[in-house]
Amino acid sequence: MSNPAKYRQRITFQKKVSMKDEEGNNVTDWQDQFTVWASIKGLRGRDYLIAGADAVKISTRIYIRFRLGITHDMRILFRDKETKRYFDITNSNNVEEKNIEIEILANEVGLNG
């Protein structure tokens, strides 16, 4: 079983939604889906996930307890004291297929997301 003390940061999963503003214009925004405890590990240098001929830059590994509902079109919001950090999900992995922990490979993005 995973160590519960390792999940020390609160993160929120967000999904892009389309809606209409007060004037009836279509706009997109990020909507909170769920908040969980996590372990965030920044990588030194750059790590690359190699899939066939493609290489994807990964800046962060995020671990959470197993749960369903994580999709690649979501992003992660981490509030660190007075700052907000956003991460695009590159891949998620059910660690050892044991339904105990999810490893998320992510790339930190700027404030404009």
UniProtKB/TrEMBL annotation:
Pfam families: Phage_HCP. NCBIfam families: gp16_SPP1. This is SPP1 family predicted phage head-tail adaptor. The lineage of its organism: Bacteria, Bacillati, Bacillota, Bacilli, Bacillales. InterPro entries: Phage_SPP1_head-tail_adaptor (IPR008767), SSP1_head-tail_sf (IPR038666).
